[in-house]
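Let us work through a complete example step by step.
Step 1: write down the sequence.
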Amino acid sequence: MKPFLTALAVTTALTAPGLASAKQVVLSATMKNYGGPGAYLAIYVTDANGAYKGTLWVAGGRSKYYGHLRDWASVTRGNPGNIASITGASVGAGRTLEVIVNVADNLIDAGYQLHVDAAAEDMREGPSEVVIPFTSGDAGSGASGRRYIGNFQYSF
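Step 2: predict the structure and record it as tokens.
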């Protein structure tokens, strides 16, 4: 049985009080059997120019390892802000992370991209392991990662 976690991402860049509408988005990352300890993941949004817009989820609760999520650490400038409400356990090899977040409707089909960075202790880092357009048309299609993620997809 794959683990299922539910979270409400309330980062002001992505969902904010008073927005007309937000959409529930299911994020799912199935890990490869890479033969190592649980991986840390950062799932975040950038615009078409690569400018950081916000973090949707971080898997792995020990902040001292966040620097190994290299691209995410770079765009957040090493200060991810208050992500306590959008974090969970690291994800083991062969396991699936599935979370539900609320995202402002105006981020969908507007040129934004979802990024997933991955890292596992004593193993190579996976910066921008997955980059996928955040569009209605790409929902459910999935993408393979380069090192740790077998499949990442989102759905509404």
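Step 3: interpret the result. Residues 22-155 form a domain with the Immunoglobulin-like fold (CATH 2.60.40).
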